[in-house]
Amino acid sequence: MKSLSAWLLALALVVSPLGAGLWFNQAYLGWLNESIPDANAYAAAWQETVDGQQQLRHPAVIHWLPSACLCRLLTLPHAVQISAEAAENGFNIYQFNGADRGLGEIRSVLLEPVLGASPTILITDTSGQVRYVGAYSDGIRCASGDSLVNSFIADPQALPQHRVVGLNVQTCRCLTP
Question: How far does Cα 41 stand from its chain's mean position?
């Protein structure tokens, strides 16, 4: 009987993580462009949100990492790293509706439902125009080295002239209604 119990316990220890991994993949991993079908509306809604925050100083890096989003925990170390680098390069650092150390000044903002998925990072130019909005990076931890974000925060004067919407990535995302 002890042998059967030991085998059942061993089986449970193997199956439980597999089940949890499958649940996580189904609930949190996916392509952002599948979750947000209209990239132009998404970007315009974020620009409108930024425009409504008159107290923001630009250029800026703005983080949205909702506390109820499990992906926040995976993204946070990369977000803190980005904040430090961007601040050194002359960007102002903010977080919308958050209270995480290392993510800049906190701003309470009413976010529109069209904003869809999080975590999200925004980068504005000196005039307050959003030049990048989207994922921090490709990959489960939003921290892979091939991130566009790192190239954008190198120099506020060298931001692209047109808005870049970073949705064509498979990453950890929390969907909001």
Answer: 18
| Residue 24 in domain | no
**20 belongs to a structural domain:** no
Q: Are 66 and 111 contacting, i.e. CB atoms less than 8 angstroms apart?
A: no
User: Using CA atoms, how far apart are residues 168 and 177, in angstroms rounded to an integer?
Assistant: 20
pLDDT (tens place) for every residue of the chain, 177 residues total = 567 666 666 655 555 554 444 444 444 454 454 667 788 888 999 999 999 999 999 999 999 988 878 788 888 888 999 999 999 999 999 999 888 889 999 998 887 655 667 788 999 999 999 999 988 876 654 555 557 788 899 999 999 999 998 877 777 777 654
Structure tokens at 168: 């064509």
Sequence-ordered list of residues with C-beta below 8 angstroms from that of 47, at least 6 positions apart, any chain = 129, 130, 163
Say how many domains are in the chain: 1
Q: Domain for residue 10, yes or no? A: no
Determine how many CB atoms are found less than 10 A away from the CB of residue 37.
10
Under DSSP, the state recorded for 86 is H
Ramachandran assignment for 47, one of left (phi > 0), alpha (psi -120 to 50 degrees), beta (any other) = alpha
